[in-house]
Design brief:
The structure is a single chain. With 394 residues, the chain is α/β, with parallel strands linked by helices. The chain is 37% helix and 17% strand. The radius of gyration is 19 Å and the shape is globular.
Length: 394
């Protein structure tokens, strides 16, 4: 077995939103955008495919989808061809698996492609599909269904413990909509004001419409390559995968691992492991993409990732520290709240944004960015996945 370094060298996505397209259309668009991102990169250079999707089997009659996707995008994988289902963390999980395969010598160049086609066959059905994300035997019968209800309770607990306000929640949405304003591939391109948020319908108190990310159709693809092959394929700065972690301590809400629902020790543990493996500390991270499925989640994530003290996430976000030019710019392409959330594709979209930030070619560029981090939670906040990136290998 080898001991190689793994880099990300190319990435692209299709337009996200409510799409009149099949999942095959979406993955083909994303794969083409990925190949177009690096002139000279051809399907024949890629020896592996990891396909991240949760609902593709539920939303079509096709199962065992990885070989089908490989065929439709012109790949002939000889090292790995598989699908992963970790819901919202599928894309990040695929990147971590690709890193391991490349670093071990089992693969040289792997495409990680995430996709969901959610708005089909009937638009209303997506709300019922979301109920499949919680533990069927315990949480479902006790009324924990669609995610807004569960995260609203977590927001209330954080408010009770730390005094977090609705205005601080709103600051996250305003910032992420601002970051997404010039992202042509995102779900939304619009400015948001505090008045817009205050006048929006309540989804699950205290969360209103703009505290919640949308469901989106979409796909994104990124290529992970062995360092030596990366140098053959690109003249751009190499972006190294430094390390990551995935932690799951429970699946039943009653077994929540924290002191209260605003306390996320499973994310703290994932962060500690990711920092140890990458040789980085929170102060080293120049730009981050965190899982802002709801405004409250980003507030708690900046705390548990170590960007501010526990309980200070609300004032930290409201102060502007998460914007371009702030202490730690977060969700610089709009995040889930503005860019959208096709579950399996989200972690890949995050990885692409970090790659472009470190290569100096992002739309909302963080000047001098050297190290970046992505984070996803999944299901009923039962799993946390972190990937770290840098312009230097560990």
């Amino acid at each position: 077995m080898g001991n190689y370094n793994a880099c990300v060298i190319a990435g692209g996505q299709c337009k996200w939103g409510v799409r009149e397209a099949s999942y095959v259309d979406l993955v083909q668009e994303a794969a083409k955008a990925c190949l177009d991102d690096l002139p000279g990169l051809k399907p024949s250079h890629i020896d592996g495919l990891i396909f991240a999707s949760t609902f593709v089997g539920r939303r079509s009659t096709q199962v065992n989808t990885a070989p089908v996707v490989a065929e439709r995008i012109g790949l002939k994988p000889t090292s790995i061809c598989t699908r992963v289902d970790v819901l919202c963390a599928g894309g990040s999980t695929g990147i971590l698996l690709a890193q391991g395969l490349v670093e071990s010598g089992m693969a040289e160049v792997v495409m990680v492609l995430g996709s969901e086609k959610l708005y089909t066959p009937e638009r209303w059905q997506i709300q019922y599909d979301e109920m499949a994300a919680v533990d069927h035997d315990w949480d479902g019968p006790n009324g924990i269904g669609p995610p807004p209800v569960w995260f609203a309770v977590q927001a209330k607990e954080h408010m009770k413990a730390y005094g977090t306000t609705k205005e601080q929640l709103a600051s996250v949405s305003i910032t992420n909509y601002k970051h997404g304003l010039n992202n042509p591939k995102g779900h939304f391109q619009k400015e948001l004001t505090l008045q817009d948020i205050q006048e929006a319908p309540v989804i699950a108190d205290p969360l209103g419409l703009f505290d919640c990310c949308p469901f989106s159709d979409g796909a994104a693809a990124i290529v992970v390559a062995r360092e030596e092959r990366a140098k053959d394929l690109t003249d751009r700065p190499l972006v190294y995968l430094r390390g990551g972690a995935q932690v799951s301590l429970h699946s039943v809400g009653g077994n929540w691992p924290g002191e209260h629902l605003g306390d996320w020790p499973h994310l703290r543990l994932a962060a500690r492991k990711a920092y140890e493996r990458s040789g980085l500390k929170p102060k080293d991270i120049d730009v981050a993409q965190t899982h802002d499925c709801f405004s409250i989640s980003e507030i708690i994530e900046v705390e548990e990732l170590g960007f501010c003290e526990k309980g200070e996430g609300g004032p930290f976000c409201e102060s502007g520290e998460i914007t371009i030019g702030g202490k730690i710019p977060i969700n610089t392409d709009g995040g889930l709240i503005s860019s959208g959330h096709p579950f399996g594709a989200t972690g890949v979209r995050m990885g692409i944004e970090i790659m472009k930030q470190l290569q100096g070619r992002a739309i909302n560029q963080v000047q001098g960015a050297t190290f970046g981090l992505t984070h996803n939670l999944s299901g009923g906040n039962v799993e946390h996945t972190i990937v770290t990136y840098g312009l230097e290998p560990r």
